[in-house]
Write a structure and sequence with these properties.
With 307 residues, the chain is of the alpha/beta class. Strands 3-2-1-8-7-6-5-4 form an 8-stranded parallel beta sheet, sandwiched between helices. Strand 6, helix 9 and strand 7 form a beta-alpha-beta unit. Helix 2 runs parallel beside helix 4 and helix 11 runs antiparallel to helix 12. 50% of the residues are buried. It binds glyceraldehyde-3-phosphate and zinc ion (ZN).
């Protein structure tokens, strides 16, 4: 089916207490692995493209691959700009047919973040495209920050309502304990902080970044308190590279790269399947590509009781 925007799928996720997996894609095999897993699991999915991916594969090329992948499946697929750092990048993605944008002003002073987010929201909304913003800052593992420093960058719940009102952003990336690009699942989320932010902006889907490093048990509570989009990149890169290493070791004389990349694609697919099930978005889409009505197994009270 054609690409959809993130607006409807994230509102549905928020209302029904599940989260949509947002998976970073850099090449054809990753894109195929992600959409194949989503199709088999009957889950909506967000394919997101970072600045690094755009530098690597090119904007038009990446957008074209995601659009083609979406057209071959019967679950909703979103093409999202991940961590757009400026106005120009967002406009270029809008022109390239992205159906969801992000402006990440987390490294700028609050007033600058508000002003630029608002400017991008205004232009994106004219085209019917939603925008994710970031308040607080999710650090990089390469920053090697202390626990105290990570805490100091966390989103202040008291700023959330005014930030959303002033910017008009459709979803909000929150800093609540995760750090980008961790290679092991060791981060604990500040669930009380997520809850406090959700109380301030109950109708705004919250976004979790740096999710590869988050402890598995943290996700259920985070989703319960408004996390509706969960970004995963490093975990998929690990799966892809593991496939490559294993295949190269197994077939040392092979020169056909397809032999290696097939295993990488399979491993990415299984990693995505695992996350989709963990985020409770599996089985939310019916055979015609719409959300199953009143998916009661996703209701709050029954979380934890599900498989
Ligand atoms: O924006 C992308 C994500 O926040 C990915 O973070 O590489 O730690 O999974 P991750
Ligand atoms: Zn991120």
């Amino acid at each position: 089916m054609p690409l959809v925007t993130s607006k409807e799928i994230l509102s549905t996720a928020l209302e029904n207490h599940f989260a949509v997996g947002a998976f970073n894609a850099n090449n054809m095999e990753q894109i195929q692995g992600i959409v194949e897993a989503a199709e088999e699991e009957r889950a909506p999915v967000i394919l997101q493209v970072s600045q690094g991916a755009i530098r690597y594969a090119g904007l038009e090329f990446t957008a074209g691959m995601v659009k083609t992948a979406a057209s071959l499946v019967s679950v909703p697929v979103v093409l999202h700009l991940d961590h757009g750092y400026d106005f120009e990048q967002n406009v270029l993605c809008l022109r390239a047919g992205f159906t969801s944008l992000m402006y990440d002003g987390s490294k700028t002073p609050l007033e600058e973040n508000v002003a630029m987010t608002k400017k991008i929201v205004e232009i994106a909304h004219i085209a019917g495209i939603p925008v994710e913003a970031e308040l607080g800052r999710v650090a990089q593992s390469t920053d090697k920050l202390s626990y105290e420093a990570v805490c100091a960058l966390m989103t202040d719940p008291a700023q959330a309502k005014e930030f959303i009102e002033r910017t008009g952003a459709d979803s909000l990336a929150v800093a609540c304990g995760s750090v980008h690009a961790m290679k092991a699942q060791e981060a604990e989320l500040d669930i009380a902080r997520i809850q406090a932010i959700h109380e301030q902006v109950p109708h705004t889907p919250l976004v979790l970044h740096g999710s590869s490093g988050v402890k598995t048990e943290s996700f259920v509570a985070a989703i319960e308190h408004g996390i509706s989009k969960i970004n995963v990149a490093t975990y998929l890169n690990q799966a892809f590279t593991r496939g490559l290493r294993e295949a190269v070791a197994k077939y040392p004389d092979e020169v056909d790269p397809r032999k290696f990349l097939t295993l990488s694609r399979d491993y990415v697919k299984e990693a995505v399947r695992e996350k989709i099930r963990l985020f409770r978005s599996a089985g939310t889409i019916d055979a015609s590509g719409g959300f199953r009505s009143a998916p009661k197994q996703f209701r709050s009270a029954e979380l934890g009781a599900a498989e």
